[in-house]
Each structure stands twice: as C-alpha cells, then as structure tokens.
Amino acid sequence: MLSSALLAALVPYALATSSGVAVLFQNDGNWTSHAEKPSALLIQRPSTYDDALLACASYGETLLDCNKVSDFQAQLDYQAYLGNVRNDEVFWTSCNQNTSDAAQQRRFLCTNSAPHVSKVDTDYSVLPRVNTSANGTTFVGMRDHMALRFLGIPFAQPPVGRLRFKAAEPWTGSHVEATKYSAACIQSGWYDGNEYGLNPWGNSEDCLYLNVFTPEIPDTAANSSAPLKPVLFWMHGGGQVTGTGVDSTFDGASLASRSDVVVVAINYRLNIFGYLSLDDDFVPGNYATSDKIEALKWVQKYISAFGGNPNNVTIFGQSAGGGSVIDLITSPKAEGLFQGAIIMSGGRGWAQSASEAASLVAPYIEPYCNSTGVERLECLQQLSAETLLNITTQGGRWRTVIDNEYTLDIPIAQVAKGRPSINSVKLMLGFMPEEGQSLLETNLAPNVSGFTEALNTLLSTGNVAQAQVDATLQSGLWLVGNETINNGSTVYPDAYNASIDIVSDITLTCYGSQFASVGAAVGAFESMYVYSLERAYALSYYNWYDLCTFPVGQPDTPYYRCHSGDLYEVFGTYYLFDQPIRVAEDVYFTNAIQDMWGSFARTGNPNVDKAYLEARDYNSTIELFSSWKWPEFSIESPQVASIQYPESSVTTLPEQRHCSVLNPLLSS
Fold first, then answer.
1. Per-chain mean pLDDT for the chain
2. Among 66, 287, 332, 493, whose CB has the most other CB atoms within 10 angstroms?
3. Which residues, if any, are the signal sequence (predicted)?
4. pLDDT tens digit sequence for 405-436
5. pLDDT, tens digit, for every residue of 250-300?
6. Strand extents, DSSP E, 277-391
C-alpha cells in the first residue's frame, strides 16, 4: 500500500478535480486567531482507503490524523444537521492504514495546509488550486485556510471598443483561470492607484469580472443531492463613480465560512462609462444596471457548480450599492434573478430623466464629439478612456436613467405602485445612526462655533440646499446647547452634532425611512425587516477626525456610528487591514450580524433558527436571541430592530419629525 506522503509527492498539488470538497473551519469570529485555528477538508464522495489517499494527494494533502478528528466535531455535527453525513459516520483517516476494511466506501477527511489569506496584497500564486465545472466551462480557483475562492471570473464581454456605451453582452468560454483579482473599473479617487492600500490590481475599462467565495464545492460528477447554499450577491458603493468588488473589505471568505453561504462580489461600470446618457437610442445610459443584471444571469447559469442555489439569491449592497439593490428591485429586466434583497444605507434609490441626464453632460461632450446619433457614438467609442474619465470630473450626474426598459420610473414612485409593478422580493433594510459624519468628510470641523454658521458652511459645500437650511431653522426641531425643548425638538450638545444629524437625514435616513414606509403602505414586498445598527467599526481609511470608532479597551468613549461603519461587521474582514479587537463584544456583534445576514439569505427572516445555531455551536448569537426577536416591519406595526451586543431592542423609524420637515425638500 502506497504511503500518503509518497502519493502527495507524486501527484501535483496545483489542480484538484472536485469530488465534493468542503472546508471545515470553525469561524468563531475572533479574527486575530483565524490562522491558528484548525482547518481540514471533508471529501463527500465515498471511496476506498487507497482512493481516499489518492484524492487527498490530488489536493496536495494527506489523510487527516485520526487524533485530530475531534478538533472538527462542531463542523461534523453541522454536516450531520444538514444531512450531508450521519451522526455515527466513520471517516477514512490516517489511522486506517492497516485496516481490513480498506475496500469499504467511506467519506474521508484530508488535511488543509492552505495558508490563511491575511493581507490585501496576498501572493495568490502560492495557494493550492481547485476546479469546478458547469455548462461546458471549467473554473480553476484556489483553496485557503477558511474557504474556496475563485477570483477574476469574466461575466460579460469587455466593454471596450464597439461595446463601450453598450449594454453588457454575456461572456462565453470553456476555461477560466480564476486565480487572481481583476482590475477595478476605471475611476479616480480612493481606488485610483494604491495610495490607501485598497487596490494593488489597478484600474481598467476591461473590468466586468466577479469573485466567488464558497465553503464547499459539490460533487458534480456524482450529481450529489446535497442541498445547495444560499447566494449573497454583493454590489459595492461609491456614489456610482468609485469603488470595486475587488476591494478586500468585501473578501467573502469570512462571511462564507461563518454563514455557510456562497458570496459573489462584482465589478460594474462607473461614472461616465456606466451612466452616460445622451437622450437617444445610441447612447441611452444604464450600462451599469445591465452589468449587474448580466452578472446575475451568470449566477443563474454557473453558481450551482460553486455550491450555490440559483433559486435562492439575495442581492445586497451598501450606500450606492444599496441604491443598486433598489434599481434591480424596480427593474423589469431583473425579474426572476433574485429572491431576497438587503439595502444597507441605500436611501430610496435615485433616477433621472434622459433629457435631464443629457443636458448636464452634453456641454462637456461637444468639444470632442459634436455630431449626433451613431456618428456621436462612434466618436465617443474612439476617445481615450482618460479623456472620458476627465469629463466625469467636469460635469454630468451619474445616475440611473428612466428609459422604459431598465428603469420605468423614479424608484420610490415605482414601489408606490405596489407589488405587481416591482420584482417579488423579501426585503431587509437599515441605517447607521450618524452616517452624516463621514459623508461630511472634512467639509465641517468639529469645533464649528454655531449652528447657523455650520449650515452656511454646508450650503457652500453643497451638502445642503438653501430651502433645507431655511426649513431647518424655521422648524425649531434642531436646537443646540441649553435651549429649551419644545414641540418634539431635539437638543444637541453642539453645532457639529446637529449638523451631522441634518446631513444624515437629508442624505440617507429620511430617504430610507420613506422607502420603508411607502413599501409597507402598499404591501410592495413579500416581507420586510428594518434595522438600525448601534455599533460600528470605522474603515481603516474612512475615519474623519478619528471620531468613527472608539479606542481599544474603551467602549464607553463617545463615537459616531458612521457611514460604512457596518462593512467590516458584515464581511468580517478586519484582519485584512490589521484592525484590532477593541473589546470582546466586537467579535460577538460581528458574529451576530453575519448570522442574521446569513439567516435572511437562507429563509428571508433574519431571526436565526436556534437549532441551526446549536448545530454550529454559535453560542454568542444564541445568547443574543434568548431574550429578543427581530419583528417584521409593517404599516400597522412599523417596528425597527435596534441591534447591539449583548442586548438588542426594538424601536421605531428614526428621525420622523425631522423627516416630516425635510421630505418635501428631498431631491429625486
């Protein structure tokens, strides 16, 4: 009988044919010790002992030491809960070498020596390879310590040349090397270069790629009957002008392993490349929306090969990514491509008429292409990408366009028409309490002396409009210092806090509250759950004046729960940016958020099933739900989950008196 060590040396580790492999990794949320936690592979296809040796060797691994099986008891209990293995099942391990039962067919456990991906600029060439196939296409990806990852998968033809300013066209091919990130879509700002340590992969107009993270690849050859996993389909934010799915903030390994989901993160065209509309049939706009829909079609065609269920897809996004979720909920072109949606700080969506879009950008186009129709399109297709990117900074407003194809109306108006007029979906949406602080960036200093002065500053920077300033001051609902409370007004300790509140309201909170209320009033969604996150952790590069987090070990230090302060919590990617655990509750809160997002993806309900939590040994989340339940939001009972750890509560929509003043003055 050949030794497992010899077999590992004889069989190249670089590529392993899938025979149903699951990464067994107990993600307890403590991101500082991920690399030290044990990891193993469960191979689902029953094999003889010798074949098990060969299979492990094909992964560059050996059969697991039988003395280490107990390290994976929680994961094996969960596999039994899923019905993938039996509670009393015996697996092939290294201790079976001299057994007389070697000819029996058993599932088996392999070691997993793949490294932990712990930094943004990881050298992916050292990760062992794995492959999966579907519909005539083979995808070669990688295995790491926590999950399986497939990076830089093309989902559409490169939108260059004759395809610039055209709707996305499907990618076709038979082989994909999904072993490194693609470039981000061309843009300026945070991801233009790698100044902030976010984008070592560069920018390109050829950027329509996606990344898949999964805890398991099914045994496609055996046509395994094991249930497929829910899919979480991520769309990044960035105001439609910046951002990328290759941002390691959205590395899906932690979320996939903790929540047992398949995570898909996409790029889509930005700024002028994704949104230019000249109010004709040749340059109609909405290319970014077509990208997202084409990526969802890719999911329908291929995701089962990665263990994902194409009939259980939840789209989710934050900020402008939340707006993308709204665009897809209201787009007839996206019908049937997803079943759930999560809007994180996404407002109520934005859209503009084609004529408005054209009027804002045409003066900046004419110096380069002053013809019309197809001649203008061909001229634009011949301009350099840099020239077009420069136009982005000069003028135009990069939004979805009402074109009666992708977008029928302003999103909130479309939702108000009720369920037959939008895509059938279960919805979850929510806010951060002080989003305006980070959205202000450095436009306003914390030591601003008076509220009127602050509002005038915000007026000059374009954060507020004159009518909004006038209404704010006339309402008496925003008071500063020791002024007397009256008529439900709010008293703020200083002008900076009052300013943060009004910018939060104008930018996101009132929009999001209105979206929830209008949807509930007409029964637009199959179900709806609304939240406010009461805990935040600032992104490493997005923490103005160092006020969006609290110091390590000092949880009582006042801080703002800022815009984007939920992203590390959802994706669990603190470790990729060397972020410390401030207090233990950071870990437990992150666990709970990932468990709730995963529960919503599985069932459409964020209340996590206790049997599931027990099967996974997720005790901190069991503790949270032992005395609390997240209520469904309805017009009769507009309850909102106020999420914190160790105790969450139930409240109502935020800022309603303020929003009653501001709603008539919000832009579409």
1. 93
2. 287
3. 1-16
4. 999 999 999 999 999 999 999 999 999 999 99
5. 999 999 999 999 999 999 999 999 999 999 999 999 999 999 999 999 999
6. 308-318, 340-344, 351-353
Residue showing tokens 């669990």: 572
Calpha distance 599→391 (Å, rounded): 43
Structure tokens at 398: 């990069």
Contact status, residue 283 vs residue 234, Cβ threshold 8 Å: no
Distance (Å) of CA 286 to CA 275, 319, 352 = 5, 18, 11
**Which of 492, 503, 498 minimizes the C-alpha distance to 441?**
503
Provide the β-strand partners of residue 128.
none
- Tell me whether residue 151 is in a domain: yes
Claim to verify: residue 409 and residue 547 sit in the same structural domain: no
| Containing structural domain, residue 630 | 435-665
Based on the fold, state whether residues 347 and 274 are members of the same structural domain: yes
- For the record, the structure tokens of 471 come out as 């209404």
CATH, residue 254: 3.40.50.1820
610 lies in the same domain as 637: yes
| Amino acid occupying residue 106 | R
Segment holding 274, helix H or strand E: helix 271-275
Q: Which residues pair with 527 in a beta bridge?
A: 426
The amino acid at 392: T
CB atoms within 10 A of CB 636: 7
Q: What sign results for the dihedral spanned by CA atoms 235, 239, 242, 248?
A: negative
For residue 150, being part of any structural domain is answered with: yes
- Are the C-beta atoms of 36 and 3 separated by less than 8 Å? no
pLDDT one-digit tens code per residue, 64-79: 999 999 999 999 999 9
Please check whether residues 575 and 656 belong to one and the same domain. yes
Rounded to whole angstroms, the Cα distance separating 327 from 315 reads: 11
Amino acid at the residue 619: N
